[in-house]
Amino acid sequence: MAFTPFSQNEVQAIREHLREHEWYIKGTTEQNFRFSISNTNLLIFTIKFPIKLPIQIQVPFEIACFKISLAFKLWNINQNTNDIITYLQKWLKGFSKSVSLGQPLPMGDKKKEFTSLIKNVIPEAIDNENERTWINRIRIALMNKKGRFEQLHKDDFKKIVKEIEQLGLKPTFKIPWELKEGIPKMRISDTLFFSTEEKNDEFFILEKDYFTYFKDIQYKKFYIRSFLESYAPLFVSTIFKNNPEINLCTLLNSWIKFSRLLLNSVLKIFNTINFNTNLLASFKPGKELDSNDFIRANHNFPLSALQYEGEIAKNLHPVHHDLLNKPPKTFTIIEHLNYYNRAEDLINNYKFDEANKLLIQALKVFNKFKQKKAVVAILFLLKKVAMILGQHKVAINYLDNALSIAKTGKIPIDYIIKIHYDLGKIYFDLLKYYKAQNHFEIIINFLNNEKITFEKKDEYNGLSSIYLGLIYQQFEEEIKSEEAFKVAFDLMEESIKIRLQYHLIRIQYYTKVGELRQAEKILKMSIKAIDFDNIPEKYNAILLQLLLELSEYFIHYKADKKKANFYLSRAKNYTDNQKISGIKATIRWNKLMRDFYRDILENDNKALTYYKRSQNLQTQLRKMGIQ
């Protein structure tokens, strides 16, 4: 069947027809029967079932709100499809009358107190305001006026989480399609996700002041969502804090069960209806229901308040927590994930003591909740600080602890490889070759297992082989050394990073142990093998180190004015004083410039200028605690 987009006249006719039957395209809080129509032939019917208070108030306040929504797509408009539209809107109206929400909250002597709290927290209503913007203004008010509420504590949230789990919803890394782009940063530490293991999408989103639940089912080309949201948890906990008969867990249990009942009732009735599904077109909900082409003001499919906030936010942040090995079910965990992010910022601003304090606090929490992956990630960051400060023994201790944790299981293979690589590299720099060899050989043995795959597998294989080639050379095991270098050489054809490091690591090692002929050989090889003009920016730091090695060679060992000046000039383009490693590289560049002017150009005044610059930068590092 050919797809024929609705014409403007057809869209207008459908709108008029539904308005005559009291369906509205404007989704205000007062409208319980809503519809939407897109320019891609998508139709939506949504019924709202609000739980209101048995008191007189001047703003539209709801303890909870339920919605059931049907979305479907037509190939075109004809008499048969018109019949489907007419039948569905009548049938849904009839269904709404058969649904009972039960008794509202027994207010008793709490009416005055509840009314006062609503008056002081809920913003003033705007006539004919779209419900989504109204809800967003309430969420902002809740965030800004938390001091007026009895706050929920850790034990309260434990009880809520337990209740959610008893209903079959478990902590999850799964994310609803409508939040695939992320959520606003301010909501990250205040949001937990729960889901079932079923094929159908069912989610509970727990925020500190907000509940959202929905379950989606695709049936006979219809996309059906049963939806629940409540911005009243803090109102209920504050007003009824001393009433054991009214608590959030009991309410939440009944609300989720009722939302499921709505969906099951719709499906049960659907089973008795013989639809000609050939009149309907299949569609992808995540694409069409969350499309920019859909007129937002008239979008009446019930999406979460988080989705709307993301829609109007400038920046979104991923919800998935990469540092966790199991989904969080306490806000404490995600709050301490923020400690990790803050610590990274502090390290970048050279505030190492403050960063370490945050990391140690986070380490205790993640240990308590057995988030091993996060523990190892923090130990990596602590190791980074130790290495910046030149504390090699401290760094080794952090990595040894990480290795002990990795041996207990549930740590990704790339983390394990990184632990061994960092240990091997530190021991190599400390000239402890036997220990370094052990770690690099463990890496190679891991990587020889064809079942192991991860993004940086070839990179670790190439770099570890370079170090092993040098270690075997140190131990006069020439055959093994050549084999290791060949592995790295073959891999560098596909990897610019391995190509740069193949030359840099060998040059630095040969220079350090006094094998200048070998260093010269690799230097000449690097000049031929590397296209210095076409190195990606992300490898600038490695390229700078290589250019400095070339500069030093032509200053100190060849006294070649032309080539020394050429490589010094190129190196200058990559110096960067924004990072510690960049400052150290700039110090070395200034010292090489001093030597160039003093020893080759015999210009002591210029040499003194560069020497003073290097001293100033060293003083800057010392002030940061770096010797």
In short:
The protein is an alpha+beta fold and 627 residues long. 56% of the residues lie in helices and 10% in strands. The relative contact order is 0.06.
Roughly what is the average pLDDT, rounded to an integer?
90
Proportion of residues in extended strands? 5-15%
Assembly state (oligomeric): single chain
How would you sum up the major sheet?
A: 9 strands, antiparallel
Radius of gyration: 33 Å
| Backbone structural class | alpha+beta
Helical residue percent band: 55-70%
Q: Give the number of helices.
A: 24
The low-confidence parts are none
- What distance separates the N and C termini? 75 Å
- Globally, the shape reads elongated
The total beta strand count reads: 9
Overview of this protein structure:
The chain has helices at 8-20, 79-97, 111-121, 131-144, 154-166, 185-188, 233-239, 248-270, 285-288, 305-312, 331-348, 352-368, 372-388, 392-406, 413-429, 433-447, 457-474, 478-491, 496-512, 516-529, 540-557, 561-572, 580-600, 604-623; strands at residues 33-37, 42-52, 62-74, 170-171, 191-195, 201-207, 210-219, 222-230, 280-281. It is α+β, with helices and mostly antiparallel strands. Strands 1, 2, 3, 4, 5, 6, 7, 8 and 9 form a nine-stranded antiparallel β-sheet that branches. The longest helix is centred in the middle third of the chain and has 23 residues, at 248-270. The radius of gyration is 33 Å and the shape is elongated. The chain starts with 7 loop residues before the first helix and ends with a helix. The model has no long low-confidence stretch (mean pLDDT 90).
